[in-house]
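Propose amino acids for all 407 sites.
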């Protein structure tokens, strides 16, 4: 059975992050395919850029981090208005063939919306863009030890672990939110499907309580920055693309580039920029750019560095660059890094220290090696993702599966 309506739910209506960009893209693709689409957003949709004909339903709430502290804490745990809002959306739009797709929820909506979505769980798909469904800090990473976490979420060892990037108090808050989430929805029994963006995520989700038989793998869509190969062997600069935040490891990239004698160019912005700009005046800051802008800039790249402190489930910009012929430098626990390295298109560091990352960067000094990696990236990395149309159809298959399974 084909859905007669697709209700897409996401914290934001502005593509400032991967989840929002994908939610908006899916709305566009389904609408262009002639399907009825409702886009439900936690913000006021004032800056939403959606096609005419897509219904927009805004909660009109500020993101949790922009709310006063008392409201941030209360709404972060259980945003009552968000739950009531989702219930009203369901009452207004639901039909037997309506499907619901939840993308991001932790920045505005809170766990409360899972209570509201419970009655339609048999027609619900939840995208797991990270590990927020199962891990209190959303990343399976210990920010204090700078190591990947292999603990079972909410186990005694997890509860005792001081892993939060801010403080024990923040960890306690995140644990409280995870406990509440599990009380609202049991992912071991829920009829909802969980769409992981990489097969490597499946065991991590299962460790956190998601039933393996309810996990489906749907890789993200990728549009390469360029249609012709970037001749990386003729270039000299390293590029970083993304949020300039502690967890993204831009400081590690800056130190590694400095040690390897390469200029770092940063496309993006964030809270860590002022400190990094002061410490590393040689960095060239490009700011946030459109996909077409990046296509021009990336033509000058010798390599793209993805030094995230977190285990990256997918790495969209990495694949956009790889498929344009730009070799990748990353840590060896990045899923896409491993896949690209197996194809001869990436250089990996085993430990999250600048020296190890610099050793990977130094491998770019050989023009012959860089050309081979660039050609491998361009020729062999397309298979690591879907085209937008393939991705749309894969999601539609999940919707049909839900409608068929519980009809």
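Proposal:
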């Amino acid at each position: 059975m084909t859905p007669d309506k697709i209700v897409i739910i996401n914290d934001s209506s502005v593509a400032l992050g991967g989840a929002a960009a994908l939610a908006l893209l899916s709305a566009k693709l389904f609408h262009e395919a002639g399907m009825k689409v409702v886009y439900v957003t936690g913000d006021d949709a004032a800056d939403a850029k959606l096609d005419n004909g897509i219904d927009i339903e805004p909660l009109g709430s500020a993101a949790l981090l922009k709310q006063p502290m008392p409201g941030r804490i209360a709404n972060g745990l259980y945003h009552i208005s968000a739950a009531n809002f989702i219930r009203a959306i369901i009452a207004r739009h639901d039909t037997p063939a309506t499907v619901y797709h939840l993308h991001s929820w932790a920045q505005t909506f809170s766990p409360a919306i899972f209570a509201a979505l419970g009655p339609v769980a048999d027609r619900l798909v939840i995208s797991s863009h990270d590990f927020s469904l199962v891990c209190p800090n959303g990343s399976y990473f210990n920010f204090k030890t700078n190591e990947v976490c292999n603990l079972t979420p909410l186990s005694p060892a997890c509860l005792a672990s001081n892993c939060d990037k801010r403080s024990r108090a923040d960890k306690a808050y995140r644990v409280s939110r995870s406990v509440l989430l599990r009380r609202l929805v049991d992912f071991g029994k829920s009829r909802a499907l969980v769409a992981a963006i990489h097969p490597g995520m499946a065991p991590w989700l299962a460790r956190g309580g998601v039933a393996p038989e309810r996990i489906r793998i749907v890789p993200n869509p990728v549009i390469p920055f360029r249609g012709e190969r970037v001749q990386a062997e003729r270039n000299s600069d390293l590029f970083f693309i993304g949020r300039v935040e502690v967890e993204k490891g831009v400081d590690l990239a800056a130190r590694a580039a400095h040690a390897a004698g390469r200029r770092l160019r940063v496309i993006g912005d964030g809270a860590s920029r002022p400190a990094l700009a002061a410490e590393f005046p040689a960095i060239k800051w490009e700011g946030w750019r459109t996909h077409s802008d990046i296509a021009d800039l990336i033509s000058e790249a010798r390599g793209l560095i993805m030094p995230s402190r977190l285990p990256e489930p997918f790495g969209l910009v990495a694949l956009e660059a790889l498929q344009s012929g730009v070799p990748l430098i990353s840590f060896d626990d990045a899923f896409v890094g491993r896949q690209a390295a197996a194809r001869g298109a990436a250089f990996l560091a085993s430990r999250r220290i600048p020296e190890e990352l610099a050793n990977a960067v130094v491998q770019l000094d050989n023009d012959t090696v860089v050309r081979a990696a660039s050609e491998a990236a361009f020729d062999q990395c397309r298979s690591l993702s879907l085209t937008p149309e393939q991705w749309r159809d894969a999601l539609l298959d999940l919707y049909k599966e839900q409608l068929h399974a519980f009809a």
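The chain has two domains: 5-220+387-405, 232-384. Residues 126 and 194 are 5 Å apart (CA to CA).
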